[in-house]
Automatic annotation (TrEMBL):
<dbReference type="InterPro" id="IPR034683">
    <property type="entry name" value="IspD/TarI"/>
</dbReference>
<feature type="site" description="Transition state stabilizer">
    <location>
        <position position="23"/>
    </location>
</feature>
<dbReference type="InterPro" id="IPR029044">
    <property type="entry name" value="Nucleotide-diphossugar_trans"/>
</dbReference>
<dbReference type="Pfam" id="PF02542">
    <property type="entry name" value="YgbB"/>
</dbReference>
<feature type="site" description="Positions MEP for the nucleophilic attack">
    <location>
        <position position="207"/>
    </location>
</feature>
<protein>
    <recommendedName>
        <fullName>Bifunctional enzyme IspD/IspF</fullName>
        <ecNumber>2.7.7.60</ecNumber>
        <ecNumber>4.6.1.12</ecNumber>
    </recommendedName>
</protein>
<feature type="binding site">
    <location>
        <position position="236"/>
    </location>
    <ligand>
        <name>a divalent metal cation</name>
    </ligand>
</feature>
<keyword id="KW-0548">Nucleotidyltransferase</keyword>
<dbReference type="InterPro" id="IPR018294">
    <property type="entry name" value="ISPD_synthase_CS"/>
</dbReference>
<keyword id="KW-0479">Metal-binding</keyword>
<feature type="site" description="Transition state stabilizer">
    <location>
        <position position="359"/>
    </location>
</feature>
<feature type="domain" description="2-C-methyl-D-erythritol 2,4-cyclodiphosphate synthase">
    <location>
        <begin position="228"/>
        <end position="380"/>
    </location>
</feature>
<feature type="binding site">
    <location>
        <begin position="234"/>
        <end position="236"/>
    </location>
    <ligand>
        <name>4-CDP-2-C-methyl-D-erythritol 2-phosphate</name>
    </ligand>
</feature>
<comment type="pathway">
    <text>Isoprenoid biosynthesis; isopentenyl diphosphate biosynthesis via DXP pathway; isopentenyl diphosphate from 1-deoxy-D-xylulose 5-phosphate: step 2/6.</text>
</comment>
<comment type="pathway">
    <text>Isoprenoid biosynthesis; isopentenyl diphosphate biosynthesis via DXP pathway; isopentenyl diphosphate from 1-deoxy-D-xylulose 5-phosphate: step 4/6.</text>
</comment>
<dbReference type="GO" id="GO:0008685">
    <property type="term" value="F:2-C-methyl-D-erythritol 2,4-cyclodiphosphate synthase activity"/>
</dbReference>
<feature type="site" description="Transition state stabilizer">
    <location>
        <position position="16"/>
    </location>
</feature>
């Protein structure tokens, strides 16, 4: 059997998609995008080794991405894609592989069947690449974005990776190419006069270059989601004191709230809203009032535990809407502080949190200034049937 090495090119910057980090290190599900591409090759029985070419400045991200994979030591890339591929090929010379498959890290959905087709195609040729037919009508655009006639799409196909080659042939082609601006290895092979055959590509083996591509990839890899809504309600009476704690913030007042833990009526209502959306009991179920360990406890612990249960189920908070009902204290001056505190507790953007206050026009126990009530609604996404 011929020896086969997969060379995964991951040295690009991918700044069209993210300015924070190269796209191959963006999260895709539970792992980085690069890890999904690598898994396809490390699990394939026909691949002997996997070599990755990276930008050395990304080495910390790379080490996180490849945890658990059995890989050859990474190779530092070059100024261009061709330079990176050439560096990877040169690093493989002491292995003397028969075949090399060169793959773009930003194609995380290459299938085992596609890898097989490329390997099979190399039985009688020096190079083989997967292609997909172009079905859309092609148009040229002027500098002013005016549409002009485009090339005839008949006979045109879009090239994908992995592109497979006889190792010695493609290494020599890269060494002698003289043109460092070619966009794929088939073009390098053609400049050296190497025959390159085509096999059927896979429309799911798309290259991630834009936010829309990433959204499509996330939809493919994440479980189907549904939206859940939970409602929470809580009440605490006033007792002698000098401040109340609402949403983790201390607010000066001529009384304090009395009750379970620190009696933070806002956080208690929010905790019940999260648990309600999960169908996971209520705050009393998880933190029994009679349990002495929760006496005078900070209520953010309850909300953090409810949020941990959301994340454990694969959920994500979309929105929190809290209404505080009281005659006093005035909530408005502290609304921003409370929203910021909730955002830190739950690690979600402040824009996803709403806090409102209202009175009951002197009616009922809140109207008599005997306590504070809170209503909360939490909206989240959860995997279907979770």
């Amino acid at each position: 059997m011929p020896s086969v090495v997969a060379l995964v090119v991951a040295a690009g910057r991918g700044e069209r998609l993210s300015s924070e980090r190269p796209k191959q290190y963006l999260p895709l599900g539970e792992r980085m995008l690069l890890a999904h591409s690598l898994r396809r090759f490390t699990e394939h029985p026909g691949i002997d080794h996997v070599q990755v070419v990276i930008d050395p400045s990304d080495s910390a991200l790379y080490e996180k991405a490849v945890q658990g994979f059995d890989l050859l030591p990474f190779v530092a890339g070059g100024e261009t894609r061709q330079g990176s591929v050439r560096a990877g090929l040169e690093a493989l010379t002491h292995f003397h592989p028969d075949i090399v498959l060169i793959h773009d890290a930003a194609r995380p959905f290459v299938s085992s069947n596609l890898i097989d087709r490329v390997l099979d195609g190399l039985a009688h040729t020096a190079g083989c690449i997967p292609v997909v037919p172009i079905t859309d009508t092609l148009k040229r655009l002027s500098a002013r974005q005016e549409v002009t006639s485009g090339p005839d799409r008949n006979g045109l196909s879009a090239a994908q990776t992995p592109q497979g080659f006889r190792f010695a042939s493609i290494l020599n082609a890269h060494r002698t190419c003289g043109n460092d601006s070619l966009t794929d290895d088939a073009a390098v092979a053609e400049t050296a006069g190497l025959p390159v055959a085509a096999v059927a590509g896979d429309p799911y083996n798309f290259k991630i270059t834009s936010r829309d591509d990433m959204t499509r990839a996330e939809a493919m890899i994440l479980p189907p989601m549904e939206t859940r809504t939970g409602f929470g309600f809580d009440v605490h009476r006033f007792a002698p004191g000098h401040s109340v704690t609402l949403c983790g913030c201390s607010i000066p007042h001529n009384a304090q709230l009395s009750g379970y833990s620190d009696a933070d009526v806002g956080l208690h209502a929010l905790t019940d809203a999260l648990l309600g959306a999960l169908g996971d009991g209520d705050i009393g179920t998880h933190f029994p009032p009679g349990d002495p360990q929760w006496r005078d406890a900070a209520s953010h612990q309850f909300l953090e535990e409810a949020h941990r249960r959301v994340k454990e189920r694969g959920g994500r908070l979309i929105n929190l809407d809290l209404t505080l009902i009281c005659e006093a204290p005035k909530i408005g001056p502290y609304r921003g502080q409370m929203i910021a505190r909730l955002a830190r507790i739950l690690d979600i953007p402040e824009a996803r949190i709403s806090i409102k206050a209202t009175t009951t026009d002197k009616l009922g126990f809140t109207g008599r200034d005997e306590g504070i009530a809170a209503q909360a609604i939490a909206t989240m996404t959860l995997p279907v049937n979770s």
